[in-house]
Design goal:
- By secondary structure, this protein is an alpha+beta fold.
- It has 2 domains: 3-142, Enolase-like, domain 1, CATH 3.30.390; 150-203.
- Helices cover 46% and strands 25% of the residues.
- The protein contains 7 helices and 5 strands; from the N terminus they run H-E-E-H-E-E-E-H-H-H-H-H.
- It has helices at 3-13, 31-45, 106-122, 132-142, 150-166, 171-177, 188-203, and strands at 21-22, 27-28, 47-62, 68-82, 85-100.
- A 3-stranded antiparallel sheet has the order 3-4-5. The chain has a two-stranded antiparallel ribbon with strand order 1-2.
- The chain is elongated and about 65 Å long.
- The N and C termini lie far apart (58 Å).
Length: 205
Amino acid sequence: MNIYQKLNEIHKQVGYIKKGQRGKQYQYVGSSDVLAVVRSHMNEQGVLLLPSIKNAKVSDFLTKTETLQLFTEIDMTMTWVNTDNPDEKIELDWYAQGMDLAGEKGVGKALTYAEKYFLLKFFNIATDDMDPDAFQDKVESSKPQEKINNEQIGLIKTNVLKVAKGRNKQETDVYKALKVTDITKLTKKQADALIEKTNKWVEQL
């Protein structure tokens, strides 16, 4: 079979995926659920899905509750390959997003969601009108966050000063690299992440 016939066979087999993940208020279809079902049919038909990143951008903003959010956007190419004839391919443009507080998980979230929703939409797999994953993110982000304390502020300022002197930079340059405009508005979780990150920078001096 050619690659279109193989993908059509997978399309015939995957019409519904049972919700196998449980959140605090509902069940939902997770990435592992989608991959577990679709991948078995991909292996059976002999097709591979190769993702590649063309462009990525990370921006930051403050929410209404003055919580720093980091927003990752990725432009991708998703390529289907016929393993029986590797020269036979289908390339499709795809876009992904990932939201994170600390910053180190934004890319991973974007890639995970890219793969999950590409497979769901490509094979027209039924989903609920309301995306439970997005709802859960909204619930988590709306929870009151514990604010940064004076000890954390002191540690961050000390590390930033050391990094600035060690790299012959201004302190404002270091804060800019950390994507922080006002450390007093950070949450305790964000502060912990910054302390860990700046500790590593200090160790590298």
